[in-house]
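Input.
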Amino acid sequence: MRPLLRSERDQVVLTPCADPARLQPGDVVLFRCCGRHILHRIVRRDGDRLTLAGDGNYRITEQCTTRDVAGIAVRVIRASGRVVGCDSPGWRLRSRLWLAIPPWLRRQVLRVLWHSGWK
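Output.
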């Protein structure tokens, strides 16, 4: 989920998905796919069918239904201890901006971040 979530540094607080009808693009969810649990962002919703992708995935997406969603991210705890609410305006804005960047450009941004040592 890099760059917005950093593996092995950030922690995600999840809550059970009580109302699947409220799931929307931009939400970060834990879902079951191919016998394993994956944490990704919803990029599109068509009825009960969800298309999901990790923020670092610029080509690969997964599909699931709302019934496959085990939990929804409500907070992120940064390595510094700072807590960020997933419903906060700042988080929502960063999420929307990242998804608005064309995939080819996201790839370049990720490449620069990776080569600069940003983890």
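The mean pLDDT is 89.
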